[in-house]
Specification:
Chains A, B, C: InterPro entries: SAM_HAT_C (IPR046470), SAM_HAT_N (IPR046469), SAM_OH_AdoTrfase (IPR002747), SAM_OH_AdoTrfase_C_sf (IPR023227), SAM_OH_AdoTrfase_N_sf (IPR023228). Three copies of one chain form a homotrimer. Chain A is an alpha+beta fold and 271 residues long. Chain A has two domains: 161 residues, 3-Layer(aba) Sandwich (Rossmann fold), CATH 3.40.50; 92 residues, Beta Barrel (Elongation Factor Tu (Ef-tu), domain 3). Helices cover 21% and strands 31% of the residues of chain A. Chain A contains five helices and 15 strands. In chain A, the strands form two sheets. In chain A, strands 8, 9, 10, 11, 12, 13, 14 and 15 form an eight-stranded antiparallel beta sheet that branches. Chain A has a seven-stranded mixed beta sheet with strand order 2-1-3-5-4-6-7. In chain A, a hairpin with a 2-residue loop joins strand 8 and strand 9. In chain A, helix 1 runs parallel beside helix 4. The mean pLDDT of chain A is 97. Chains in contact: A-B, A-C, B-C. At the B-C interface, strand 2 and helix 2 of B face helix 1 of C.
């Protein structure tokens, strides 16, 4: 199985699929091709929130503002999964989450990720490495098998790092952490989803015991609830979303607009 | 085969697919994930117009404004198909259409649908039952087989109803019916499609014998034609669309804008 | 394998897939369903740039402003591929490119395409031949096999033409050619992609030896580069895109807006 994620819109992902299918009979599953354009952090977030739900797979992720420069192509292995993409950090949060889940089911194992560089020859284009570099690489890794990927001539192991360490040789991507002190949390909006839900980095545990109370979001009050339908249509709410973070939402509406929040904005939550 | 339909946009459907693929090797086919947000009636319409074209399958449909409340998860069986989703009526129009088609090929059979409740344990999230309740349920039904779904411990049969009856225990969804008197039809816009075609609930038979004449749509005249290209580019037309209803369209343009029509609007058609 | 491309948006492609899957177990791969509405030339361009990357397949392409008129349904065979769609030229540029690639690997072979008409009975609708004519035709061609398609009763061979000739009986589609004289090129914008890159018909070779120099695009200067990241965020550039043409782009922005270019616009490039 090969999953595909990018910021390519259409129809460029079809060229990647064609290239892969020339080399592999793998099942192909689209994750998304409308990640926010050239936004590595947003792509890394969404990959972390979707890829770990898949069974063992090769995950092709191409959000690549450095295409055509000398940035490397990399493969990151976590558990029985391999992630293939540019060396800009986009693969690492998902890889760590997958490694953590794999380690949970084997309590003696320290969660680690294996980092590899994939050496590519001069590609046909300098602007579409998704088609000319990463798709062939994903097909090659898939056909070799995740366990055997280190034996591929194009692949060189660089390092194996714990999920708590930054890699030395690869570009990393970490999300900012919120601070919680007493009844106040300070964080930021990580992403806004298609519904308009403003997903913060404040851990859901901040709302423990607060269900039914009013929470101020940068001064704007909204009830803490467990289901959207607990407030009227068009009304604000805060809840613990499916990612485990506090979200600022509107029932049947857009939380980003109602709370005036965009990705990267600071958020102060208080009782 | 499992089809997937939702109002989730991206990338949430990918998490559903990952969860299903953990449990099943089923072919996955996307129907749409951009149904009008939390609009149960529109989703029910589009499911009715697409799902019956599929061979026997499990159809996962998640348009779920009541997520996190105590609304049930349900399975509806029709012919050799099973539909899985929330108990808000979204499954029933498609299920009835599938049952009617199955009965057509077996003329002694009265078309009926079997209604089941699917009991789910506390899901990981209260906001994403697509991932935590419905995707696993669809995988489970698929692996058991549509014929054997009643034997699943989580599944309880509630009732079997004729397609002409409302279920007693499940929430229903019916589309309003138009009235036709002489040369006038009164109905409403059911949905507007991606082309901007305003699809009414007036049966296509209203246009029988009227091809080439002018029809007034809420007073705005447009010719009744059988092909868009019979009028000039940018010109209004009325025609019998692929759903069997009268549509108010524009050749290479948007009918909703040209006629000033939106879903739910009243439409009076007259010769 | 059957690929699907259209301007249908959603959820109409799902009905096509259901119809195909009633008759075939083929792998289905979406190319795109958001081609510019009823724009045959744009669809022909994108098909040419994506379909040749696929292994042998049946390619279903439905961009069909003449739906419901007496335009034919056609099948075009190129190499081991077959393309199915309306007789409006949309299939031919991709078919020629596939034929050229097939001939490259067999240097004695003159690249040709085989043109067929597919005779269809009265379809269920006059507005959705994608579902009622082309999807069944694609399934039928796939099940017969590309080599054997001429033996299908619905299929009649019309002619075999070299890629340099226009067919006599089918509607053709050719892209305009740019003229290059000395340090000036005159062409036009063929398409704008999802990134906002304005893709011209000026061959990439026009930029040979010009990397690092300023190019005037209708008088607006921009550096000729090989990677987007060679200019600052939000800055204009010209480069050879992945289609082999000169593109007018912006790093992390939209070239069409920055250069004031839309499909069909004339472009004069000069040093």
């Amino acid at each position: 199985m090969i999953t595909l994620a990018s910021d390519f819109g259409t129809p460029y992902p079809a060229a990647m699929k064609g290239v892969i299918l020339q080399e592999s009979d793998a099942r192909l599953v689209d994750v998304a091709h409308d990640f926010p354009r050239q936004d590595v952090r947003a792509a890394a977030f969404w990959c972390r929130e979707t890829l770990p739900y898949f069974p063992p797979a090769v995950h092709l992720v191409v959000v690549d503002p450095g295409v055509g420069t000398d940035r490397d192509a990399v493969v990151v292995r976590a558990g029985d999964h391999a992630l293939v993409g540019p060396d800009n950090g986009v693969l690492l949060p998902a890889a760590r989450r997958i490694a953590e889940r794999a380690a949970e089911s084997d309590s003696e194992k320290e969660p680690t990720v294996d980092c590899f560089v994939y050496e590519y020859a001069d590609p046909a284009s300098s602007t579409f490495h998704g088609r000319d570099v990463f798709a062939p690489a994903a097909a090659e890794v898939h056909e070799a098998g995740v366990d055997a990927l280190a034996s591929l001539p194009a692949v060189s192991r660089v390092e194996t790092v714990s999920v708590t360490e930054a890699p030395n040789a690869l570009v990393d991507c970490r999300f900012p952490e919120a601070s919680v002190e007493g009844s106040e949390a300070r964080g930021e909006v990580l992403v806004v989803d298609d519904f308009g839900n403003a997903i913060t980095n404040v851990p859901g545990s901040f709302l423990d015991g607060k269900t039914g109370t009013e929470i101020a979001v940068n001064g704007t009050p909204a009830p803490a609830v467990t289901a959207f339908a607990e407030v009227g249509e068009g009304e604000r709410l805060v809840t613990v979303g499916s990612h485990g973070y506090v979200e600022c939402d509107v029932n049947r509406g857009r939380g980003d607009e109602a709370f005036g929040l965009a990705p990267g904005d600071e958020v102060v939550l208080s009782e």
